[in-house]
Specification:
Layout: H1 7-63
């Protein structure tokens, strides 16, 4: 059972609601997009931090003298 008395009132209501629904959908999509952008920024920041840490560790590794491994001599 419809709250409208005629089909034309229902159509008028739908025409009225269509832009409102579109605005709500756009707002919802914008919120999702903003959340995804924020997540991406955090991931990029984390990746930059990891790369920076890796570069520091590589520099530290270069400071060490290369190891001279002595192989044990085999007895005959």
């Amino acid at each position: 059972m419809s709250i409208f008395n005629s089909e034309s009132e229902n159509e008028r209501f739908e025409r009225h609601m269509k832009p409102i629904r579109a605005l709500n959908e756009n707002r919802r999509l914008k919120l999702i997009r903003d959340e995804l952008k924020k997540d991406l920024q955090l991931q990029r920041k984390g990746l930059r931090a990891l790369k920076s840490e890796q570069a520091k560790l590589e520099q530290e590794l270069k400071r060490f003298a290369p190891l001279q491994l002595e192989l044990p001599l085999k007895r005959l």
